[in-house]
Design a protein that fits this description.
- This protein has 242 residues and is mostly beta strands.
- It contains 2 helices and 16 strands.
- A 6-stranded antiparallel β-sheet has the order 6-16-15-14-11-10. A 4-stranded antiparallel β-sheet has the order 5-7-8-9, with no helix packed on it.
- Strand 3 and strand 4 form a beta hairpin.
Length: 242
Amino acid sequence: MTRGWYVGSSFSYVGSGFSRTVLAIACLIGVTTIAHAQQRPDVSGNWMLNGGKTTFGEWHLTDAGERRFKAYDYKKDDPALKCIGTSWTRVWLNPNVLVKITQNPNDVRLQYEWMDIDRRIPLVDPTVARVKRSVPIPNMPGLGTSVAWYDGNALVIETRDVEPGYVSTMQEWAGLPQSRMMRTIERLSLADPGLLSIQITHVDPANYRDPLPVTITYPRSKFELMHYGCDPKDAQITEPSK
């Protein structure tokens, strides 16, 4: 069985012939101190964008943001063509690849098939000023560092410390910019038992006059995580669809 995998502005089949087979309630602050209990919604499991929906809210760019957006050239500016994820929204947007979520007592792990990204995020008390943040993803400075906590029925992930890049390099959103000032909030919750909702808010006053909302839904998948094995030599540059 084969699946088409997006690599940046390209679409290419990789790995022909692969076969697919089918509570702790706590928050660790620092290293050993449990600050308070948080109710934990269960968003664990395997999820895939296929069959889900993506909605971008209206964006209102600053003058600087508008210049960057108009200057984007998909032939040379897409970091994914070098096997680099440029933002968490861009990572979530990739079709036909699996995301595996594992919830542990003191952290949450998100394994993205796309680019073989392994994201381990400490669970923290969001009311504490200084908390332990995630280790940066190697060679992907646009993904910054993150912390997570539970809020009602949602897993919340906050990301900062990013390098300039792009919120998206796909479709009509290709070239929407990201500056070092970007702060991203992801809210993961169950729209129903078989559908994961990812609500992302981008706050970047250097490029946007107000927050940019994005909602992506992922149906639950029976597939298992595979190795992506991105190689820039395999990328096929095509113009993003509008």
